[in-house]
Amino acid sequence: MAKPTRIDPADLLAVGDMLTDEERLIRDTVRKFADERIRPDVGDWFERGVFPARELAPELGALGVLGMHLDGYGCTGSTAVAYGVACMELEAADSGLRSFVSVQGSLAMRSIHAYGSEEQKQRWLPGMAAGELIGCFALTEPDFGSDPANMRTRARRKGGENGDWVLSGTKMWITNGSIADVAVVWAQTDEGVRGFLVERGTPGFTANDVHGKLSLRASVTSELVLDEVVLPADAVLPGVTGLRGPLSSLGEARYGILWGTVGAARDCYTAALEYAKSRIQFERPIAGFQLTQQKLVEMMLEVEKAYLVALRIGRLKDEGAARPAHISFGKLNNVRAALEIARSARTVLGANGITTEYPVLRHANNLESVLTYEGTSEIHTLVLGEAITGESAYR
User: Fold this and answer.
1) Of the listed 374, 378, 386, 391, which one is catalytic?
2) In the annotation, is 141 catalytic?
3) Do 60 and 120 meet the contact criterion of CB atoms below 8 Å apart?
4) Mean pLDDT (whole number) for 24-48
5) 8-state DSSP, 354
6) What is the pLDDT of residues 279-300, one digit of tens each?
7) Element (H, E) at 226
């Protein structure tokens, strides 16, 4: 391992030196894309509440980040750490960008890859990897988020054992919902929870965007309504029955989050650092004041600790040793740290910190959503509580 030749304020412990050459190349490539393609416009997208998904999806496909941790079907089969550093750089630009990639790859594509038939994989995965097709993942309902076992969306057979399926229900807070070419919809059946592939334009299937968001504004969030939607028998994912299906994919998405929030935290910290060095008060840069230095040092410490947590969990995942409790550890710790960093960074920027000219309050607002989606902090606390005590506190 090469020794750092200088102190890098953005990575004081040189955690990046612990990455492989390939992982650093992926990190730098995604960072360059985010800097050149996303940063110039994301503040405007956030302010207007838009995300040009159809325009960006093919570019993200060409970049190789859509389903990059899957094998075959146009996917690159990258390591877990490589996928993690990509998520870190994507979320450093905006959580909405990382959410798009995460939902496409870790939720929609991963569900089809893990549990779909060969025909379903061939039909959807190559186009999704290229960004020509967009997917979404529909588990959460208006009244059931943390308790998906009690979902009300149901699918019933029509015409016998090999007959069509009929789906009815409502899903809520679905990223990419209204722009998706295919929705992976999870529903109760007489056999248990099953996953269904619902194509855009299927009669009875409608998607309505959620408006008035104060967070994740540069992201498409939708309500999906299924009103007696008739699907052919082969629309079901044949490889899984029960909540193991959706929850295993959620674990993949949570893994991306624990890396992504490191990027958001780093971006807030470095924005505050650069501002503090240039902002003059009382005839000197505010970076020279003790209280400002304390804030910056506290931010830097938490960024580096979160980075180390992410890297350790990534290495465990690549070794096949990562468990749900490890993912919960990373998500709980890193999101919480990122939120505190964003709030502290905003105070360094003063009034300038509330504008879209700087990324800090945009990240803070986004992180409020990241805190509760893919498992609330309360749920992840209970996962960890059970892991260390052997006692479940869910019920």
Assistant:
1) 374
2) no
3) no
4) 96
5) G
6) 988 999 999 999 999 999 999 9
7) strand 221-231
